[in-house]
Amino acid sequence: MATRIDQEYQDLKKRVHYFLVERLDEEGMEVGKSGRETLFAFIQDNVRSFVAQHRMPLSAQDLTLLTRETFDEVAGFGPLEPLLADETVNDILVNGPRDVFIEVSGVLQRAQTRFIDDDHVTRVIRRILAPLGRRLDESSPMVDARLPDGSRVNAIIPPIALDGPSISIRKFTQKHLTAQDLVNSGSMTSRCLEILMNLVEARRNILISGGTGTGKTTILNLLSQYIPRDERVVTIEDSAELQLNHPHIVRLETRPANTEGSGKITARDLVINALRMRPDRIILGEVRSGEIIELLQAMNTGHEGSMSTIHSNSAKDALVRIETLLAVNGYDAGERAIGRLIGSSLDVIVQLARLPSGRRFISEVVAMQSTPDDPYKMETLYRAEREEHGDLAPLTGEGPT
């Protein structure tokens, strides 16, 4: 019964939306040039007129909801508007018209949000991309872009997406967690924070490792705040998320290929260029491909204190992933030479983890103590043990000497 009523409401929204589009065209109103209050009043009057004309038995509450959702449809991103406005929502994942999930405080949950049909999802995707100058069609069925507020959006449609159009949005927040916020939430202890601060100030090369959604960018942003103010910093990101309150910073961002397939600028291109900009430190948002070669060489040749992140489930796995990236991107050297390069370039690995409850925390901080026999020898500077009930046990390990 509930499904039938919901479908009837979605059908009603579709009819009202088409009616409003016709009325806007008849009145010559341009959505982009009309004030929000004027536009809302116009939509409110016409929704009421449509409901009265068709003698629809809607309660005052349902009429208010229909008006607001129609306004979101005409002036914004439809059903996504409330989720984009909700500061507690970190990720929005649309798997189809009736399969919308959100992440709140690290926990993925189904949202009540619904789209009318696949065409409705596609229409919202194109509305999101239109101001960005990006297209999405059968010849170019997937796109990765950054919204004006810094949020990242990935969209993919058939024939690549077999079950219909899909949207993934990683929201960007202007309010970054402070060190004290992370300590208060149990993401790290005061002792861990002290260790990390000392490592940054001592110009150690730091790699932040963790799985998806463990807070790598949050920790990278936090550590960057402790870079001395007299140092020149160059940041390189696919989507600009870092917010460094630093007086001497240059921010670079990669660029995808245009519709003709040219103009692409990769992270590797930007790392190479950054080395010509006299940086004291290079901060690379994430290691994904061939940029690892230039980053390691930069860390090893006078750019101490550089930082980056990598997807990996442990510190040792992070080293294996770097080896793989070097190999597949044409770094032609023997196993021992690769080990020596990595061991001599990286000083510290900060490993992040996330509990099933969604709680994120720093699980360990290890220092690389490379030797001729073991280039990956590690010393634990900090470790947070997980007890059976899921809380963090008291910290073990000593700080760096």
Explain how this protein is built.
- With 401 residues, this protein is α/β, with parallel strands linked by helices.
- It folds into 3 domains: 1-75, no CATH class; 77-173, Beta-Lactamase (2-Layer Sandwich); 179-383, P-loop containing nucleotide triphosphate hydrolases (Rossmann fold, 3-Layer(aba) Sandwich), CATH 3.40.50.300.
- 37% of the residues lie in helices and 20% in strands.
- It contains 12 helices and 14 strands.
- The protein is elongated.
What string gives the helices and strands in order? HHHHEEEHEEEHHEHEEHEHEHHEEE
Mean pLDDT score, rounded?
85
Q: In percent, how much strand structure appears in the residues?
A: 15-25%
CATH architecture assignment of the largest domain: 3-Layer(aba) Sandwich
Structural domain tally: 3
Could you give me the name of the CATH homologous superfamily of the largest domain?
P-loop containing nucleotide triphosphate hydrolases
Taking the sheet with the most strands, its summary is: 8 strands, mixed
- CATH top level of the largest domain is Alpha Beta
Radius of gyration: 25 Å
